[in-house]
């Protein structure tokens, strides 16, 4: 049994949002005759993709080949569109969510869905979150690490976080909108350095901002093994101890106290056993779950193989491969 919590999907086509809304910046998809496509942003190539990102049949073949029983589908983060008009992003979010819900409905035994929301407007985001749960029967919401200069732990987002906590809708936090200009423009540094940094900053902002105290039922999962958090959380604890005037403005708990509880989780996308061991030690055996970043090249190409090839006990492997995800997602 494997539940892959971190698997991205796109529609096979979508409206011309630039024409619909009257301004640019929207992602488009240029399909080729060979079953591949290029995601375009502002007229420039953003990322090459192939049919696995939109074809249920193609991903089911991969799932059967690698033993993944269930994928939790979420949009590609560049589609968040938090930079746009909230009303327009709400339209885009509804379109993407309806598309994911349709894919889930076509294979309900193999797919579950994470929704996306117009997070730049927490009230609209809360409305779409509720629709995702009540109408579309989704199991959670994927959100980005920030909106403009606001970290996700900013009280600005409280109406959305409260709604998630009130109806027990877990959040999957995925890094996005990393700096990619100047010294960040080469060697995939936005993905290699920017993504772990974004995730760590989001987690610490929730801790130091007191969000987990304001909303005790709030539950979040951090992508990519928690970013750099397992390696740096002790540094944050030290800062909490030595700089109380700066660090204890909005919280009373040190960062280590949030680990290994039922509010903070992470996926297992860390690429080697040493890193996985550290994540297990810091996050806890009950708080990590399989995530592959399917179908992208930086993901785990055979989801769960790292876990399966360790010397971990059968009990721990089962927790990482599916049992922890069942608990996080409120699955029977």
UniProtKB/TrEMBL annotation:
SUPFAM superfamilies: Metallo-dependent hydrolases. Residues 3-331 form the Amidohydrolase-related domain. The keyword Zinc applies. It holds the Pfam family Amidohydro_2. It is an enzyme of class 4 (lyase). It catalyses: 2-amino-3-carboxymuconate 6-semialdehyde + H(+) = 2-aminomuconate 6-semialdehyde + CO2. One of its GO terms (cellular component) is cytosol. Monomer. This is 2-amino-3-carboxymuconate-6-semialdehyde decarboxylase. It comes from Pseudolycoriella hygida. The gene is Acmsd_1.
């Amino acid at each position: 049994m494997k539940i892959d919590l971190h698997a991205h999907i796109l529609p096979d086509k979508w409206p011309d949002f630039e024409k619909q809304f009257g301004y640019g910046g929207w992602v488009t998809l240029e399909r080729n005759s060979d079953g591949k496509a290029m995601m375009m942003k502002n007229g420039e190539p953003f990322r090459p993709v192939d049919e696995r990102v939109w074809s249920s049949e193609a991903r089911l073949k991969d799932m059967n080949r690698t033993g993944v029983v269930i994928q939790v589908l979420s949009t590609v983060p560049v589609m968040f569109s938090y930079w746009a008009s909230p009303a327009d992003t709400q339209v885009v979010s509804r379109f993407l969510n309806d598309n994911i819900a349709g894919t889930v409905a076509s294979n309900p035994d193999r797919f579950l869905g994470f929704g996306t929301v117009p997070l730049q407007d927490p009230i609209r985001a809360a409305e779409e979150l509720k629709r995702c749960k009540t109408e579309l029967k989704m199991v959670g919401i994927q959100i980005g690490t920030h909106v403009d200069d606001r970290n996700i732990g900013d009280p600005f987002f409280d109406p959305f976080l409260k709604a998630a906590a009130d109806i027990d809708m877990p959040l999957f936090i995925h890094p996005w909108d990393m700096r990619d200009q100047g010294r960040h423009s080469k060697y995939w540094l936005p993905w290699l350095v920017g993504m772990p940094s974004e995730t760590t900053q989001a987690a610490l902002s929730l801790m130091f901002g007191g969000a987990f105290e304001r909303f005790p039922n709030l539950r979040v999962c951090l992508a990519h093994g928690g970013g750099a958090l397992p390696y740096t959380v002790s540094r944050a604890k030290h800062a909490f101890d030595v700089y109380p005037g700066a660090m204890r403005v909005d919280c009373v708990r040190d960062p280590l106290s949030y680990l290994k509880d039922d509010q903070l989780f992470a996926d297992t996308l860390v690429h080697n056993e040493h890193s996985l061991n550290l994540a297990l030690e810091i996050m806890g055996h009950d708080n990590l779950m399989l995530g592959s970043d399917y179908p992208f090249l930086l993901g785990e190409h055979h989801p769960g193989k790292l876990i399966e090839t360790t010397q971990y006990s059968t009990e721990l492997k089962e927790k990482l491969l599916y049992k922890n995800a069942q608990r996080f997602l409120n699955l029977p």
